[in-house]
Amino acid sequence: MKHLSLLIAILLVALVGCAVPECVQRDYYVGTKTEATVGSPLMSWTYGSSVVDCQTRQLIYTGVDHGVVHIAYREYYNNMARPAFSHDLWYDISKSGEISFQDVKIKIDGANQKVINYTVVEEPRIMRAKGNHPYSGANDVPGVVGMGMLIDKEGHILRVFDFNAAKRAGLREGDEVLQVDSKPLPLGDLGVIVSVLGGEPGTEVDLVIRRNGEEQSIHVTRQKFVK
Fold first, then answer.
1. Residues 125-135: what's their mean pLDDT?
2. N or C: at which end does the chain have fewer Cβ atoms within 10 angstroms?
3. CB 82 within 8 A of CB 70
4. 181: domain CATH number?
5. What span, in angstroms and rounded, lies between the C-alpha atoms of 41 and 65?
6. Range of the domain at 123
């Protein structure tokens, strides 16, 4: 009994002394033109004080009818398969191209029965309070640019997303961007880097990159971001 009490005491001390990781995850891209198919989330965000106290919320595109966009809102708790709460939403985009739900704002560029093109303008307030993240163009974290790749403030490509412009142009993870349209990439300020590399779909840009110690030129035609 004495040994059991001692063991319990040791476990309690260990648990109290351990930092419980915060549960924070985003699956959306602020300020980036994005495309989603029917049945897939426009936005998905997860937060909680610990990994055993997670809330996941989703806005799912379910179709459009005579200019009215249908969105399904779902809430999940602790990775449960069935939503704890759900609600169907309708937005008449013929009157306004922007939809709002709670503190989220999304600009709709176009929608049909197969896909929706949109841009997240404002993320949930709770996620803004969690600080910078890879999709906001913040200075100290990687940023997603309009050509569909994740880059850091030193110009290193950390991820190339499938079905997007960077992938189609042949850019790879590990490439280092040196020049953009014959001008040196401005290093150190990720917001500037994202601005220089990003652009409207259909516009073109010439890059000089370093790969395995050798420089080479890459021509990229920007496109809408595809999830």
1. 59
2. N
3. no
4. 2.30.42.10
5. 18
6. 23-128
